[in-house]
Amino acid sequence: MLSVKPFHLPIVVEDIRGVVKNKTVLSVVAGVKTELLEKMLPGARVVGAMSNINAVVKSAITALTADRSADNEDRAVAEEVFRMLGDVVWIPEEYMDAFTALIGIGPAFVAELIDALVLGAVATGMPRELAYKAMLRLLEGTVRALEETRWHPAILRDLVVTPAGTTIRGIYTMELRAVKAALMETVQQATKRSIELGLEISNWLNKNMKNK
Ligand SMILES: NC(=O)c1ccc[n+]([C@@H]2O[C@H](COP(=O)([O-])OP(=O)(O)OC[C@H]3O[C@@H](n4cnc5c(N)ncnc54)[C@H](OP(=O)(O)O)[C@@H]3O)[C@@H](O)[C@H]2O)c1
Question: What is the CATH number of the domain that holds 58?
Answer without folding.
Answer: 3.40.50.720
